[in-house]
Design goal:
The complex is a heterodimer of chains A (about 325) and B (about 550). With about 325 residues, chain A is mainly α. Chain A is built from 15 helices and no strands. In chain A, about 75% of the residues lie in helices and about 0% in strands. Chain B contains 17 helices and 23 strands. In chain B, β4 and β5 form a beta hairpin. Classes of the chains: A mainly alpha (about 325), B alpha+beta (about 550).
Chain lengths: ~325, ~550
């Protein structure tokens, strides 16, 4: 119980620090949203518009940093993230983020789970039949893929599979001429659009899981209790899964919990390259446009998600491995 | 303005390899009604909000023109020629201090309500009541807008302000009083289902974060228009994705900066064309509060020393032609260029490094041991030049400037900063030299005014609207204001000639290249595009209300 309380306390302190940083950082950036709008404009924007923009963004009123901090903490604790300044001026930040999250959870979330399951599986099997055909082909290929920049893999896939071969759509999260809905045609189209970005993410992230799983598995296989199980004449599959893999999976599980936390941040470059409307895309937009409220909400979302993921992984490890509970 | 990023090079190289792209064939129908689907390709930098408030700078580019219509159309590509739109005619009176519009009859809003003079008067008074909506600051010159008789609207001005015709008649979309008077707070009104008089309608049902779908208004007041059935406007986060989409024939109307456009785009299909009409200047701004740069000899020397042609060819692939020191964009505004006056200033400051050196020497500057000129008091002519590091073409152009100036003994160090820092430093005057661009307007006067009017300036540290070099001269201000008092073309030309002289004599800004409208079009599926021979509107889709003109004039093929 003391362990749980300590973890929770640590969580609270980190959260406060993150909240405060999250408040200060955007305010330390140069420029202001009115200038950002003037700058990104391509049409015939008149110079006199600057005045209207300053009024629109309330940049004429000067609130002290401390009172702004107070307002910010109050708003955040009640779930109010304010109004977007430049990305979608006038619209509620909460609404904008909620619109983008399903796309990211669907694409990056599903891919992360898939990469973990497949990667761990390949790691287990590869380590069990060490030096076998599977072990000498898949792990090296995927480990090499992890060091290739994933946006580059995405670009190559767009060019070959999309532009040249016309096999799959490569931009947008669905065909924009369709009306979004729960029809089979729309869902099919949506899945079709997700194949390329998901595949790109999958083949570039799977290698890490394979490598860590395979290596811990090999160490575990040399343990005495595995030898004992063999001596008892247990079936190979049972030894592989229940004796070796079960123990070897711990480091991978911790990593998995943390990467789940990062899912809500989206995959910025993947979403940019594939013109996919997720959270990463939104984050890039917010930063480019000096949209403080949107930036704050997104950073906060990512921070909290990662902190919660770490907390859960800490607690899960404590349950799975009693030794960690006693530590300090 | 759209610029190249590193990733784009990779896509470009690959698409080149995949050269034979297939173009989508346009859908067409035999019926006489609007048909065909046109797709616009213009990087928006993010997903759509589906707000269409015509008085919000962020949303008006997507409603003014095809959905909401202004009183008149002022064509930049024809020296500001004004033609009737919702107003059938107008007259200036009382020493150019009143402007009377006669409102067209038979125009209906998309909800069936007729357009009346009361709607027009209401629209302008709405801007007065909510200054946040008055993006063009029309109420800085207006004193009243009232309805007169059944079909006229009279606008009275504080002082004669003829130049504001463009902002009043061309840039303000007219709304339906019966709709807007019910809105409690127009300044934050999203206007998801706009009710306009235009040839197209849009609503929350036809707009998603990925695409805005404009549908032809079958009850449009111009009989037989529009010919295009639907217009799709998909959202693109980056220039590169938009370029790939366009080059693969998935869109017909591009408004994109495309590096190596011949191999990337026009070579793909004989129906693919582009036209980049120049509309304003990209210039080197000179901070006139800097003690060394205050010296006109230094500025004149720089104007002679910069090889504008090189900046255009190397920095801009030649898409943006070289500028001239008069500040007149050619060929768009060639009739405004006072060539005889310009020729007396070294042929309009044509590239002449030896002349630049002799000017510096005559002003008492001496070359130091490192080849850099020094002022009589020993200060070296060494400056930083602020630039937007996100625009790779500008970075390349500034490199050529650096080389040109080095050759005559002026050291310049580029500071390529992120867009937000760049904007903030440029507007607040925290730079020595800066590379930047004004927006211009329908005649050269607008850009000259943006550069030279002291009213657009501000103290260092405060954001200035457009006079970023902080030029201030009462005589020039008087000239600028005189323009507003005359509707005579001859007098307007004479005033612009005198403003050109200010540019030539004082060199407060050095125009380097001309900024252009980025425009690509596919004649395989649609005809009626603007061309150099028929420049009926600014062709890039981000020009409002001009793009509404295009949407009315385009005709699906087949």
């Amino acid at each position: 119980m003391r362990f749980v309380l300590r973890r929770l306390g640590f969580f609270a302190v980190t959260l406060w620090a993150a909240l405060t940083l999250n408040f200060l950082l955007p305010r330390m950036m140069p420029g202001n949203p009115a200038l950002a709008i003037m700058g990104k404009f391509k049409g015939p924007v008149p110079p006199q518009a600057l005045k209207a923009l300053y009024a629109q963004f309330g940049l004429n009123s000067h609130q002290s940093l401390l009172s702004a901090y107070g307002t910010y903490l109050g708003d955040v604790s009640t779930g109010k993230f304010g109004i977007s300044l430049t990305t979608q001026p006038g619209n509620s930040v909460g609404r904008i983020v909620l619109d983008a999250i399903p796309w990211t959870l669907g694409l990056v979330g599903v891919t992360t789970v898939l990469a973990f399951v497949l990667g761990t599986g390949i790691g287990i099997v590869g380590a069990w039949w060490r030096g076998g055909r599977l072990d000498s082909i898949l792990p090296p290929i995927f480990v090499i893929m992890t060091v290739v920049p994933y946006f580059w893999v995405g670009l190559v896939l767009i060019l070959v599979v999309g532009v040249k071969l016309h096999w799959l759509p490569y931009f947008f999260s669905y065909n924009y001429t369709l009306t979004p809905g729960l029809s089979g045609a729309f869902i099919g189209n949506m899945l079709e659009h997700a194949i390329l970005p998901a595949f790109t993410l999958l083949i570039t992230t799977i290698g890490t899981w394979i490598l860590t799983m395979r290596n811990t598995m090999i160490t575990t296989l040399a343990e005495d209790y595995v030898r004992m199980a063999r001596a008892k004449g247990l079936p190979g599959r049972r030894i592989m899964l229940d004796y070796a893999a079960r123990n070897a999976i711990l480091p991978n599980l911790t990593g998995f919990a943390m990467s789940l936390g990062f899912v809500v941040g989206g995959a910025i470059l993947i979403e940019e390259v594939f013109n996919y409307q997720g959270v990463g895309y939104l984050l890039l937009q917010a930063v480019n446009n000096d949209d403080y409220p949107l930036m704050q909400a997104l950073f906060l979302l990512i921070t909290v998600a990662v902190l919660v993921a770490i907390l859960i992984s800490d607690l899960a490890t404590a349950i799975l491995d009693p030794r960690t509970r006693g530590a300090r | 303005m759209r610029r190249l990023k590193v990733i784009g090079v990779l896509i470009a190289a690959g698409v080149l390899a995949a050269a034979c792209g297939t173009s989508s064939s346009p859908s067409s129908s035999k019926s006489s009604g609007p048909s065909g689907a046109l797709t616009i390709d213009n990087e928006s930098g993010g997903t759509w909000t589906c707000d269409f408030n015509p008085f919000n700078l962020s949303y008006l580019p997507y409603s003014l023109g095809p959905v909401y219509e202004p009183l008149a159309f002022v064509n930049t590509l024809q020296s500001g020629k004004a033609s009737p739109w919702l107003a059938s005619s107008w007259t200036w009176g009382a020493g150019n201090k009143t402007l009377t519009f006669t409102i067209r009859k038979g125009v209906k809003f998309s909800n069936g309500n007729p357009l009346t003079a009361a709607d027009v008067a209401y629209t302008f008074n709405l801007l007065k009541k909510y200054p946040v909506l008055d993006i063009n600051a029309v109420w800085s010159v207006l004193s009243g807008v009232t309805q007169q008789g059944s079909d006229q609207v009279v606008m009275t001005f504080k002082t004669a302000a003829v130049q504001y015709f463009y902002y009043i008649a061309d840039q303000v979309g007219i709304v339906d009083q019966s709709v807007w008077s019910k809105i409690s707070n127009p300044s934050t009104y999203p206007d998801k289902n706009p009710v306009g008089t235009g040839g197209f309608t849009v609503s929350s049902k036809t707009c998603t974060p990925q695409n805005i779908k404009y549908t032809a208004n079958t009850h449009y007041w111009q009989k037989g228009e529009p010919k295009v059935g639907t217009v799709n406007y998909p959202s693109f986060l980056t220039n590169d994705t938009a370029n790939t989409y366009l080059a693969n024939g998935q869109a017909q109307w591009g408004s994109q900066f495309i590096p190596s456009i011949k191999s990337f785009y026009t070579s793909k299909n004989p129906n693919y064309h582009y036209w980049f009409p120049p509309v304003a200047n990209v210039s080197m701004f000179i901070n006139l509060t800097n003690p060394l740069l205050k010296n006109v000899a230094v500025r004149q020397a720089m104007a002679y020393a910069i090889d504008r042609q090189k900046a255009s060819t190397i920095g801009e692939y030649g898409y943006e032609p070289a500028s001239n020191q008069s500040g007149i964009v050619t060929p768009t505004f060639s009739s405004w260029l006072d060539t005889s006056q310009a020729s007396s200033f070294g042929n309009n400051y044509a590239y002449n490094p030896s002349k630049a050196i002799s000017i510096l020497q005559a002003a008492g500057f001496k070359r130091g041991s490192n080849g850099i000129f020094q002022s009589p008091s020993g200060q070296p002519l060494s400056f930083t030049i602020l630039n937007n590091g996100g625009f790779s073409d500008w970075v390349a152009a500034v490199q050529t400037i650096q080389t040109s100036l080095k050759a005559i003994g002026i050291a310049v160090t580029p500071e390529n900063l992120a867009a937000t820092t760049y904007q903030s430093d440029l507007y607040s005057g925290k730079y020595q030299l800066a590379y930047g661009s004004e927006t211009g307007g329908p005649t050269p006067y607008f850009e000259l005014r943006q550069w030279l009017d002291s009213a657009n300036s501000a103290p260092i540290g405060t954001a200035a609207g457009s006079n970023w070099e902080r030029y201030s001269n009462p005589a020039t201000d008087a000239l600028i204001n005189q323009y507003g008092a005359t509707t005579s073309a001859a007098q307007q030309h004479s005033i612009v000639d005198q403003l050109e002289k200010v540019m030539l004599q004082d060199v407060p800004v050095i125009p380097v290249t001309e900024s252009v409208d980025w425009f690509q079009y596919d004649t395989g599926s649609f005809t009626g595009w603007p061309t150099p021979g028929n420049p009926y509107a600014q062709p890039a889709a981000y020009n409002y209300p001009d793009w509404g003109q295009l949407m009315l004039r385009l005709v699906p093929k087949g």
